[in-house]
Amino acid sequence: MDIRKLLKVNTINIIILALVFLFKFVTGFMFDDHSGDNASIVMMTNVITAILLVGWAGYTIYSNMTVIKEYNDRDKALLAGARSRLLKAGNQRFFTNERQHLVKMWDSMMTREKYFLSKDRDDRVKDLYLMTRNQMMRYVTDASEYMESFDYISGKDSGYLKGLCNEAEVMLNKFNTIVELSVSVDDEVLSYDTREMDDMLEALEELKKSGKNKLAR
Fold first, then answer.
1. What is the distance between the alpha carbons of residues 70 and 84, in angstroms, rounded to a whole number?
2. CA 145 to CA 147: how far, in whole Å?
3. DSSP state of 92
4. Which residue, 20, 18, 117, is CA-closest to 76?
5. According to the 3-state scheme, what is the secondary structure of the chain?
6. Per-residue confidence of the chain (217 residues) as pLDDT tens digits?
7. How far apart are CA 151 and CA 157, in angstroms?
């Protein structure tokens, strides 16, 4: 979520709301005599204030939904772009096995996103999925960067991609094991031993703080 943009939008919304109440206060102060013509003016300002408040509420909802939609659209584009970049990175005649292996693991994560992020999933399962997916994206991104910068003339491979694929596979296998445990108890995560999940979440947090292959933001 783009918190900064959301805060900026809602700061503006608060300022607009303050202006509406300022208008109400000023007009109420100027026309506090309800006799004669002032009564109709007061009624009119009340109607205008009500209209402004309705408009403000509608704009607040719209502006917040727009920011959320922009974030979701950008997130989807980044995820789709990571896969596409991996397939096209560098000389596509090289590293075909590693490339396809990473794509397969990436697709394994993405095809189940709707399930893991549904409203009825436990929050810890959602967190585990998102952190695992983000780490997988880091692997995919690093692999793309490696293939794009690889010296295809000398062709000396350090084995970096193979090591990266192995790390990604170990992480995905552990994630799948934990998910199977949660499903086996009807997704009531807290009803079984959660040490495995705790360990993986802790490991992902460490990767998030570390250097190479850290969690993508």
1. 21
2. 6
3. T
4. 117
5. CCHHHHHHHHHHHHHHHHHHHHHHHHHHHHCCCCCCHHHHHHHHHHHHHHHHHHHHHHHHHHHHHHHHHHHHHHHHHHHHHHHHHHHHCCCCCCCHHHHHHHHHHHHHHHCCHHHHCCCCCCHHHHHHHHHHHHHHHHHHHHHHHHHHHCCCCCCCCCCHHHHHHHHHHHHHHHHHHHHHHHHHCCCCHHHCCCHHHHHHHHHHHHHHHCCCCCCCC
6. 567 777 888 899 899 989 888 888 887 777 665 555 667 777 788 888 889 899 989 989 888 887 777 666 666 667 778 888 998 998 988 999 999 999 999 998 888 888 888 877 777 778 888 888 888 889 999 999 999 999 888 878 888 999 999 999 988 988 888 777 766 655 454 444 556 667 777 777 777 666 555 444 3
7. 9
Q: Tell me the C-alpha to C-alpha distance, in Å, between residue 145 and each of 86, 90, 97, 140.
A: 9, 9, 17, 9
Question: What gap in Å lies between CA 194 and CA 182, rounded to an integer?
Answer: 9
pTM of the model: 0.60
CA distances from 42 to 11, 20, 38 (A): 29, 15, 6
